[in-house]
Amino acid sequence: MIKIRRIYDPEETGEHYKVFIDRLWPRGISKQKAGWNEWMKEISPSNELRKWYNHDPERWTEFKRLYKNELIQKQNELKKLKQLE
Q1: Four-point Cα dihedral 34, 18, 3, 14, nearest 10
Q2: 59-74 pLDDT per residue, tens
Q3: Can you tell me the distance from the alpha carbon of 69 to that of 43, in angstroms, rounded to the nearest whole number?
Q4: Which of 33, 45, 67, 84 is the most buried (most CB within 10 A)?
Q5: Exposed, middle or buried: residue 17 (CB in 10 Å: 0-12, 13-18, 19+)?
Q6: Is 41 in contact with 28 (CB distance < 8 Å)?
Q7: What angle do CA 26, 75, 49 make, to 5 degrees?
Q8: Using one digit for the tens of pLDDT, what is the confidence trace for 24-78?
């Protein structure tokens, strides 16, 4: 089962394989101490899309559409993620 949580959230009991999906590694958290098994930044929103969105709620609907279009080009990466289930 895939569960979603923020990197800042405490680890939950029973987590087996943790994949961090974001373009940027968060400040103040070392990769070693974070304890995540894999970082799949290639399936996160592109830098251009992330910058355009800029956490603007009015752009959310368009952001989702554009991100889904980006993911269409990332089928191999998505298959890898799906195989971890």
Answers
A1: -90
A2: 999 999 999 999 999 9
A3: 11
A4: 45
A5: exposed
A6: no
A7: 45
A8: 999 889 988 888 899 999 999 999 999 999 999 999 999 999 999 999 999 999 9
